[in-house]
Amino acid sequence: MLKHRGAKAPIGGGAGVCRCPHHSESVEVGANNHLSLSKVGAPTECSHLFCFYVKQKSWEPPPTISYFIAIINKHQSQVMEVPKMQPRKITLDEKEMPTAYYNILADLPRPLDPPLHPGTGKPIGPEDLSAIFPPELIKQEVSRERYIEIPDEVQNAYRLYRPTPLIRAFNLERALDTSAEIYYKYEGVSPAGSHKPNTAIAQAYYNKQAGIKRLTTETGAGQWGSALSLACNLFGLECKVYMVRVSYEQKPYRRSMIQAWGATVVPSPSPDTSVGRRILEKNPDSPGSLGIAISEAVEDAVSREDTNYSLGSVLNHVLLHQTVIGQEAMKQLEKVDAYPGIVIGCVGGGSNFGGIALPFVRDKILSGGGSVNGKNLRIIAVEPASCPSLTKGEFRYDFGDTAQMTPLLPMHTLGHTFMPPSIHAGGLRYHGMAPIVSRLYLDGLIEAQAYKQLEVFEAAVLFARTEGIIPAPESAHAIKAVIEEAKRSKEEGEKKVILFNLSGHGHFDMAAYDAYFAGKLEDYEMPREAVKKALEEIKTYPIPA
Ligand SMILES: Cc1ncc(COP(=O)(O)O)c(C=O)c1O
Questions:
Q1: How far is the CA of 39 from the centre of ligand 1 (A)?
Q2: What's the pLDDT tens digit per position in 365-377?
Q3: Residue whose CB lies within 8 A of the most ligand 1 atoms, among 185, 186, 187, 195, for a mutation test
Q4: Any domain includes 98
Q5: What is the pLDDT of residues 137-159, one digit of tens each?
Q6: Could you tell me if 416 and 288 lie in one domain?
Q7: 282 and 364 housed in the same domain
Q8: DSSP states along 247-295
Q9: Ligand 1: which of 184, 187, 323, 352 to mutate, judged by most atoms within 8 Å of the beta carbon?
């Protein structure tokens, strides 16, 4: 039995009446399931997307993304149709930009456990951090003030690319034939191509203000390194980037971008630090990891008076700076009278997810933890199955880096010795998770999902062919989750509003797309046994209360 999506009654026996949403009158469906359109004077064969289902004799949307890709290849012009009177892009005026960061520490139901000094095992104080961070950032790390003003100089620099657009993904919705409304906040419009400058600019500013002349950092995929290079250039600071060796080799143009804004970039492990030399002695071909690169950048900063260290994710002050994303998105949704039922972001260290999600988490906390305005609000963090810190890691104290130079942080971790496989979403290859995100997950305020590399790239291609933007592989994890939720929304017959953060474009990730199209990418799922083994190494570390 066939049932047309728009039909009130099932169409049986291969013939019947189709109330196709593209035709003002009912039209008869012939025995061969082609439309007999003589009654409405339309062409003899309807070419609309929904009628495609009639011709296929299939009324349930098939589950695979490649099926949707096949449909849009065949019916591109309908997928691209713009509904009249509805804006595709929802923009804000520069005057409507947030003037303060939102600090979730003011609203958490349970406060975070403090970072611990690795030597004493006692909570660290501001003086322990002053060797690598300026006073204002240390203050922000522990502040309980709900809103922290954004300095004029930082707002001025943000205006290079903020406010970023919120875009209704009409084309993707149509391709999925979903009842859900999908909106994405596009952070790829920043000069560096991702959300990372939101904190890079703030961190460069506060360091400059404190009299610092030079910043060091690590970078995985190259997004953070390029963002910090851009920000240091804006505020006249020197910058040195330790870039994970696999990415340094896979992404020569990210490297050039870092250089274009004036920073120095070296592959990590490097011979420039004692940590790097030690690792190279043991394994000259080490592919590197974010944990190693962090150790190198911290060692460099500690060894020079004029130099501080800058981290692109994980820490409270980084997530704080990123809340401009969620605050803007909230205002933009208000303009179309919408509020999300689902908020989605990918997670590496947790900063872009925190950025879009935290202002909505606040609504959830204030309304008692479940629904907001009487409607259920789900907030989903999406990670790679190959580096599943939330879905398979454990919540405990662990180092943020491989060489154990950072304080011990309370977080979901795979163990700081964990060497993630060389997947092509380099920005998500981190063993730990932001303490804020970890705490929200523990308290049931957010959910987590993990996806494999191939299904993520499939989702990225569908997005590129519908919405036009080629997403960063990291961001494509969020897209995959959005597609799954949109399909579920249709199955459940609900009209969900889904908001997600498109954290960056993938213009410098074309080697990864190349490998995908050539069939050279492989899936890798971290087995529980491997996680157990990595966690063995930190089993004596304290467990947060
Ligand atoms: C485009 C993009 N999205 C997401 C991430 C993950 O980082 P975070 O979890 O801090 O947002 C990265 C990291 O480099 C990235 O480049």
A1: 55
A2: 999 877 787 789 9
A3: 195
A4: no
A5: 999 999 999 999 999 999 999 99
A6: no
A7: no
A8: HHHH-HHHHHHHHHTT-EEEEES-TTSHHHHHHHHH-TT----HHHHHH
A9: 352
